[in-house]
Amino acid sequence: MKLLTLNCHSWQEDEQLAKIHYLAKIIQENDYDVIALQEVSQSIAARNVCGNMKEDNFVSLLQVELEKLGAAKYDAVWDFAHIGYDVYEEGLAILTKHSIIKSDSFFVSDSIDTTYWKTRKIVSVTVSYYNQPVTFYSCHLGWWDDEKEPFKKQVDHLLHRVENDELSFLMGDFNNNARMQNEGYDYLIQKGLYDTYKLAEKKDEGTTVQGKIAGWDENKKNLRIDLILSNQPVQVTSSKVIFNGINREVISDHFGVEAQINV
């Protein structure tokens, strides 16, 4: 099973349409089974075209590019968590080429006010992977030391939804540096989650953010905050950072993470 997670930083990037096309090209080449995306935005003022998706929805445009390239058909689930930059509905998405058994979206923040930028939501899908149900969560959580929306409470809300007897993967931007001890990353591991990067037989250096970005305005370190976690131990053949200028071109202020897992 091939997995990809990426915080897209959508509509904040120069040459955004070209980067959507490039992302589609890499998805086609690598033939991922499931893709979790964060910061998947659409304009508030744009025209509705399908359900809650509007004509400039990032993941909808990505699907169009995939179809143009003749890639495998990827179904998408998307929902928005909060208003971003006053003009966007910012959300999360999951794409998969496998049959979707069920999908969901739910708040993990105390706030459910979508006009508040710290409001956090999760999108999930359960797919049939060779007749086995596997659930995936696209996650974009808050910061460890946030007094208004503490990370620990968001994790607790999230894990309350995760069924222990069913294989699940939590993928995305956790906004906590895995290299920082006694904070959010350690809390995730203490709650019984497994880091596929740590389990991988082959891996690279792991950095997914370099320097300052939105939410990390004072950062001068190399961070590993984009993760693929599982609720059960799994065999991980490889974990690689992608879209970092070494393994493919940079297309966001975050690098992506791809994992090859034997299920």
From TrEMBL:
Gene3D superfamilies named in the record: Endonuclease/exonuclease/phosphatase
Record InterPro entries: Endo/exonu/phosph_ase_sf, Endo/exonuclease/phosphatase, TDP2-like
Domain Endonuclease/exonuclease/phosphatase positions: 18-254
GO molecular function, one term: endonuclease activity
Pfam families reported for this sequence: Exo_endo_phos (PF03372)
Keywords: Endonuclease, Hydrolase, Nuclease
Protein name per its UniProtKB record: Endonuclease/exonuclease/phosphatase family protein
Natural source organism: Bacillus bruguierae
